[in-house]
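Exam revision sheet. Question 4 asks you to relate a sequence to its structure. Input first:
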Amino acid sequence: SSTMSLSEAEVQSARGAWEKIYGDAEDNGTAVLVRMFTEHPDTKSYFTHFKGMDSAEEMKQSDQIRGHGKKVFSAINDMVQHLDNSEAFLGIVTPLGKKHATQLKIDPKNFRIICDIILQLMEEKFGGDCKASFEKVTNEICTHLNNIYKEEGW
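Answer key, structure tokens:
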């Protein structure tokens, strides 16, 4: 199950789609988190310092949310660079999954939520083709993360 299910053409178009949104990693990463916290308020409970923030405006200004948004986008960017090398890809996804499962105890359903919001944002900003070409990548990421969680006993 360690091999990637993306063709070379799919990898190329996924990278092209990702580049568009990653061009403004901090703002777009922030927008994704703010939308997640607003639409799924229970996800805020994992971030103790975001708890008191209720308005999207306030969240957008938060250095911690901006910092984490950038971090999320950087991690995905690393994965996108290694879509054609399953060993390198897993070398990024595995420690990330383990940390979220064991130390941070983040419910794995939140990865799907965040991926879906990224896809929504892609569609809003760059159209349906952009979203479509990245969809397989998000499935790949979520599948691998879920597998790591299973291995960690979730």
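Marking note for examiners. The chain has a mean pLDDT of 94.
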